[in-house]
Write a structure and sequence with these properties.
The protein has about 260 residues and is mainly α. The chain has 12 helices and 5 strands. The two termini are about 30 Å apart. About 35% of the residues are buried.
């Protein structure tokens, strides 16, 4: 996945919002026995999304490739989660995680902008707040180019819609910070992904990605305890030593562990 902390901001959120239904449609039609190239070509020619234009289908497939196809085990894991209706909400949270990891603007809208507003006591999030935040990024030369007013407005609107679709905000016209729910299975799947990178229970607890779900370090520790009790992982703390292990070697195997639980 892209390093969300080093790249400049782009306005690709305009073409790459939540896309939850489109992503699930694509997963439902993915042929794991075929190559990525074959699948993308077939899905484009069949227009399974029912979009009015070919260019829009191409946009969706580009986004899907960027978000979910870097790691072969990830797409296979998502397919395993997709077939369990009881894991639908879990899958939504996982899709949000990888969407945000692929777009620094979306990532920081959650981990910086939204977290900051909540800490300041704001409940309602207005388009003007998001526009002001984007303007600050532009003024600090953190975007690839200077954005037009139209681009700023559309980016702000799409950020609000995307955060709402993924459950961090609620409301149609007036957006408010939502009482966010993260299923323990989603937490465990994302924890496994992070652990593959950091290889340390302590670093996992302090990892900045948890801010995507508005989680404090204490909340992460509570989730680890709950996941341990459900036998999704092994979590032990002895003094300053944290030991964390998972019953799988890759995301596909871990998705199978989760999907085979009784719901």
């Amino acid at each position: 996945m892209n390093n969300t902390k080093t790249e400049l901001y782009t306005s690709k959120i305009i073409k790459a919002g939540a896309l939850i239904d489109d992503t699930k449609t694509l997963l439902a039609n993915w042929d794991i026995s075929q190559t990525v190239k074959f699948n993308l070509s077939r899905l484009q020619s069949q227009n399974i999304f029912g979009k009015a234009t070919r260019s829009r289908v191409e946009d969706i497939l580009v986004v899907f490739r960027q978000r979910y196809l870097d790691d072969p085990a990830l797409i296979e894991g998502l397919l395993l989660l997709m077939v369990k209706p009881a894991l639908s909400q879990m899958l939504d949270r996982v899709l949000f995680y990888f969407s945000a990891k692929n777009d620094r603007l979306l990532y920081d809208a959650a981990t910086c902008f939204l977290v900051s507003k909540r800490e300041q006591g704001f409940e309602e999030i207005t388009p003007e707040m998001v526009i002001d935040w984007i303007n600050e990024l532009i003024e600090n030369k953190q975007t690839i180019t200077a954005w037009s007013e139209k681009t700023i407005l559309r980016s702000a609107q799409e950020l609000l819609s995307t955060l709402r679709d993924f459950g961090l905000l609620e409301g149609v016209k007036t957006k408010r910070i939502a009482p966010f729910y993260l299923p323990v299975e989603a937490f465990a799947f994302i924890a496994f992904y992070i652990f593959q990178e950091v290889a340390s229970g302590e670093r996992l607890i302090h990892h900045p990605d948890w801010k995507l779900f508005l989680l404090s370090e204490r909340a992460v520790e509570r989730f680890l305890m709950e996941a341990h009790q459900l036998h999704l992982l092994e979590y032990h703390v002895a003094g300053t030593v944290t030991r964390l292990t998972f019953p799988a070697a890759n995301l596909e195997e871990y998705a199978r562990v989760i999907s085979q639980r009784t719901y």
